[in-house]
Amino acid sequence: MSPSEAARPENATLGLVVHPSKPVVESVQRLTAWTGAHGNILIARDKDRERVGPGVATVPDEQFVASVDAVVSLGGDGTMLRAMRLVAQRPVPVLGVNYGNVGFLVELDPADLDSALPRLVNGDFHIESHLGLRMTIDAADGSPRPPQVAFNDVVLTRRGIHGAASVDLGVNDEQYGYYRCDALVVTTPTGSTAYNYSAGGPVVSPSAPAVVITAVAPMAGINRSVVLGPKDEIILRVTADSEPIAVDLDGVPTGSVRANGRVIRAACATPLRWSAWTPSAMAAAGGYGAVYSICRCARTS
Fold first, then answer.
1. Please, what are the averages of pLDDT over each run of 10 residues along the chain (301 residues)?
2. Which of 89, 180, 214, 224 could form a disulfide with 201 if both were Cys (CB 3.0 to 4.6 A apart)?
3. CATH 3.40.50.10330 intervals, the chain
4. Predicted local confidence at residue 274, as pLDDT
5. Which residue(s) pair with 132 in the sheet?
6. How far apart are the first and last CA of the chain?
7. What's the DSSP call for residue 281?
């Protein structure tokens, strides 16, 4: 990797994103001690002030994003995705420390944090590209809202218990088909094993540059998954006869779409997975033969 993609070894500013309820105090204390001993700076967001304690300076989100050279996420996959979305517009490495129940995206145990931090600030990790989605939702007056990034999936769901979500699909300015269903899942390869898979969609290798659209409980229209390329522009238009539709990004409620409103995936974002050798992995492998994945980075193309 190039030096510009790594955190600066001296005076690096590390950002901290924490789970809203998991007990992460021990790792916060380790981070505070390590950054203080090595001349680095540790900051968190104002909204996490009570979770990180008085020993960590907090700043507004805008200042956080502009200041950090790397981010440490303490939590599970949801916290990791939140950290990645936060810095999606910058090539900033995100180190995931697993305090969750599953941890598909975060592979570093809290006990390995001390050995991972020097590698993070020195850029001692490898890059593996993963595809993301950059999405725009029309506002109530029809004007586009600022784009947002999803790393797993974008889900359109009917808000009521009756009726259906009715959505027209356009690809590259051409009408492609329509859906009448309970929900519609637009997924990345990384997210293909989640809601998409439970709805009968395909599992896609992270190395494949593809976007998958899968209907949940389809009643009419397209009833099979549609696989598109990374440069295809997807336009999802909510029709006049549709039930109200809620939009989730990576499982987080984002808003709703009015009748005749649009959800547009205008371009792909490219989240990058960062990996590094750590002592525990080298010991298990008997040398440098294994790579223990510890970092992710978000970058938009």
1. 49 92 92 93 94 93 93 89 85 84 76 88 71 80 79 90 92 93 93 93 89 96 94 90 91 85 65 41 33 40 41
2. 214
3. 3-124+277-300
4. 42
5. 269
6. 17
7. H
Structure tokens belonging to residue 139: 């506002």
| Among the listed residues 85, 84, 133, the one whose alpha carbon sits nearest the alpha carbon of residue 95 | 84
Query: How far is it, in rounded angstroms, from Cα 249 to Cα 85?
Result: 10
pTM, 2 dp? 0.77
How many helices and strands (H and E) does the chain possess? 7, 20
Does domain 132-269 match CATH 2.60.200.30?
A: yes
Other C-beta atoms within 10 Å of 248: how many?
Answer: 19
CB 155 within 8 A of CB 183: yes
Q: Where are the alpha helices (DSSP H) in 148-226?
A: 195-198
Measured CA to CA, the distance from residue 97 to residue 103 in angstroms comes to 9
- Active site annotation includes 138: no
> Which amino acid is it at 276?
A
Q: Would you state the pLDDT for residue 103?
A: 67
Assigned fold of 3-124+277-300:
Rossmann fold (3.40.50)
- Output the pLDDT for position 231: 87
Which residue carries 């390590």 as its tokens?
34
Distances (CA, A) of 21 to 18, 25, 45, 102, 165: 9, 11, 15, 16, 34
Beta bridge partners of 262: 237
Query: 25-37 and 113-122 are packed helices; what angle lies between their axes, rounded to 10 degrees?
Result: 50
Max CA separation in the chain (angstroms): 63
Q: Write down the catalytic residue from 77, 112, 153, 248.
A: 77
Q: Which of 56, 53, 12, 70 has the alpha carbon at shortest distance from 276?
A: 70
